[in-house]
Amino acid sequence: MTSNASWAAQNKANTHRLRNWTFAWVLTTALLAFGPRFLWDYQAMFTVAALLLNVGVGGGMILANRAHLQGLDELQQRIFLEAAAITLGVGLVFACAYDLLDSVQLIAFEPEIAHVVIVMCLTFLGAMIAGHRKYQ
Q1: Do residues 3 and 61 both lie within one domain?
Q2: Domain residues for 100?
């Protein structure tokens, strides 16, 4: 019982750490996206600093995600890895097709990376939900 409680506490700590790093990365991404225009008038030094901060915090988020994954049990790891594999495939196929839509003039706007990120996030969420339902 003690090891089960210990695992649950560690899993909760890993989840909170991942949440915090992800939130910090989103904030630094917003700073990098909007800071040059609204805060420092496109001064290169501040933009480079924001970029380095964003990449550094992104690295921390990646390591937190890795620690979270390693702390999961085998079934949870399997669900996560299957969802990640589906997301990778959907993201790659969607991104390539989406970019080509502009090249072959089937859309009148420039493809945005944010649209690809949204598709990937929704794919991962759906695949995680489907995985949990599959193994219930």
Answers
A1: yes
A2: 73-136
Per-residue pLDDT of the chain (136 residues), as tens digits, is 567 888 889 999 999 999 999 999 999 999 999 999 999 999 999 999 999 999 999 999 999 999 999 999 999 999 999 999 999 999 999 999 999 998 898 998 999 999 999 999 999 999 999 999 999 8
- Domain match, 135 and 94 both: yes
Residue 113's CB is within 10 A of a number of other CB atoms, namely 9
Joined together, the tokens standing for residue 75 give 């079934």
Read off the tokens for 69: 């994954």
Written as six digits, the tokens of 83 are: 């969802």
Residue owning tokens 């839509």: 101
Same domain, 135 and 98: yes
Contact 30, 39 (CB under 8 A): no
Task: Quickly list H helices, the chain.
Answer: 2-38, 44-71, 74-103, 113-134
pTM for this predicted structure: 0.83
d(CA 131, CA 43) in angstroms, rounded, equals 46
